[in-house]
Amino acid sequence: MADIVNVRLNDVRLLPFSCSFSVERGNNVVVEIDGINEFGTVETVGNEQSQAVGNVVRIATTNDIEQNKRMLSFQDADTEKVRTRVNELGLVLKLVAVLRSLDSKKILVMYTADDRVDFRQLVKDLAGIFKMRVEMRQISERDEAKFHGGCGACGQILCCRRFLNIPRQTSIKMAKVQGIALTPNKVNGVCGKLMCCLQYEYSQYREIMAKMPPINSIVETPHGKGTIAYLDLLGEKIAVKLDDATKPITKYTIDEVKVLVAAKDENADDGEE
After folding, report:
1. What strands lie across the sheet with 106-112, from one edge to the other?
2. What confidence tier does 263 reach under pLDDT thresholds 50, 70, 90?
């Protein structure tokens, strides 16, 4: 019985393939999709729940590896040829990459665009230039960042490049709950979209916040009445500005305060993207 293995292709997609022989994580392989041979690397083995999009033909030979390097070496020159034709046709799109298949039967053009692009004439022209099948693939800004790679604000290689195959849905609400400044350089990734990692600890922050009274609530503390100034969610403390102006803002545990007048919770009805 054939196994399902997930293979990372040169275009960075991770796709499931049927494999009738033994492979291991990290093996370079040649796969077949719709009659086209592509080069990739095995990432996981035995994912039976996925529907295979093609077959693993063989473990890559030395010749296959050298052929793949040769196909990748055409990328810059091919991209320039496509860019020239795009400009001549006046098409409004941003080229991300132009890749040849391992068997040189197909050329893949990846691009981003704000609006729908009529590229029928472009495909005809490129087929004549390259003498192979042309596939146009519109991708998102997140996919572009995944393809090129890079480092995030944390100093680590981008999550989408390392392990995050499906982008996480994020929202400004997640940043607000975690107390992150709502400025682009703090909440946006290199793709210009909200960082996927905003979701990683969001559920823990929500769990802690559910125990806390809203900011601006009036509370009774061991040192008198006051108003909640802010919440220290990681420390699970409530910072209170006491009515006695001579006393500094003081932090208390949830058990040390009694809510007298609860303020409206600004995050209670926020929806997630």
Report:
1. 94-100, 106-112, 133-138
2. confident
What span, in angstroms and rounded, lies between the C-alpha atoms of 184 and 193? 9
Q: Could you give phi then psi for residue 154, rounded to 5 degrees? A: -80, -10
Amino acid at 17: F
Mean pLDDT (the chain, rounded): 91
Q: Locate tokens 């070496």: which residue?
A: 73
Dmax over CA atoms of the chain, in Å, equals 82
Residues 6+ apart with CB under 8 A from 53: 15, 16, 17, 33
Task: Calculate ∠ Cα 165-13-47, nearest 5°.
Answer: 65
| CATH fold of 74-139 | GMP Synthetase; Chain A, domain 3 (3.30.300)
pLDDT for 271: 42
Instruction: Output the CATH code of domain 211-261.
Output: 2.30.30.30
DSSP-derived letter for residue 188 is: B
- Cα–Cα dist 109/135, whole Å: 6
Closest-CA residue to 85 (of 119, 113, 52, 111): 119
- Condensed to tens digits (0 to 9), the pLDDT of residues 101-126 reads 999 999 999 999 999 999 999 999 99
User: Taking the mean position of all CA atoms in its chain, how far away is CA 86?
Assistant: 28
